[in-house]
Design brief:
- This protein is mainly alpha-helical and 181 residues long.
- Among the domains are: 35 residues, no CATH class; 73 residues.
- It is built from three helices and five strands; from the N terminus they run E-E-E-E-E-H-H-H.
- The chain has a three-stranded antiparallel β-sheet, with no helix packed on it. A two-stranded antiparallel sheet has the order 1-2.
- The N and C termini lie far apart (142 Å).
- About 3% of the residues have low confidence.
């Protein structure tokens, strides 16, 4: 008998890869199978379905399917590759999202800067106009005209003006004047 592998006998190269179907209790015998199990053999004592191969078929054997979940789980290398691809996809998505977000923020800030510069120019123009208006309102000719026409004021005559001259006092004189008062 050949050596055993995975709990079963090792088959020689020309041996068929399917096992004959064994009837289960209560199963009809001789009737063709229909549905999902048509063309497949069920191995009693195991929960695996092995696809049937035509006699004389060459090439690699078809994969064994687990009857409980449909297919056997992928090998660990394949899982690692899929995990790496998913991580790369997530990183690329995050990078693209952050790039788009930063570009949108830059555009938004550009609009805000443009609006602020327009408002700044408008305020500078208002400030310039107000300075001109203040200068016009402070002009001595305008003040003299308003005083004479609207308030009835006149220029003083030479005898009405008196000038007072105060000598500069030193600290000693300032103290003496403070005591005298």
């Amino acid at each position: 008998m050949p050596a055993k592998r995975n709990g079963g006998p090792l088959l020689h190269p020309g041996a068929p890869l399917h096992h004959p179907a064994a009837p289960r209790r209560g199963a009809r015998t001789g009737a063709p199978r229909r549905g999902a199990r048509a063309g497949r053999s069920f191995i009693p004592g195991r929960r695996c379905i092995i696809p049937e191969r035509p006699a004389g078929a060459r090439g690699p054997a078809p994969p064994v399917r687990d009857a409980r979940i449909g297919t056997r789980p992928p090998p660990p290398r394949r899982r690692a590759a899929v995990a790496c691809m998913l991580v790369a996809l997530v990183l690329c998505t995050a990078a693209a999202t952050s790039h788009v977000w930063t570009r949108l923020k830059a555009i938004e800030l550009g609009y805000r800067l443009s609006k602020a510069s327009k408002q700044h120019a408008k305020l500078l123009e208002i400030n310039r106009r107000l300075r001109i208006e203040v200068a016009l309102l402070k002009s001595p000719d305008r003040i003299a005209r308003i005083a004479s026409e609207e308030l009835g004021m006149q220029q003083p005559r030479p005898g009405q003006v008196r000038r007072l001259w105060l000598p500069r006092a030193s600290d000693h004189d300032a103290q003496h004047l403070a005591r005298a008062r």
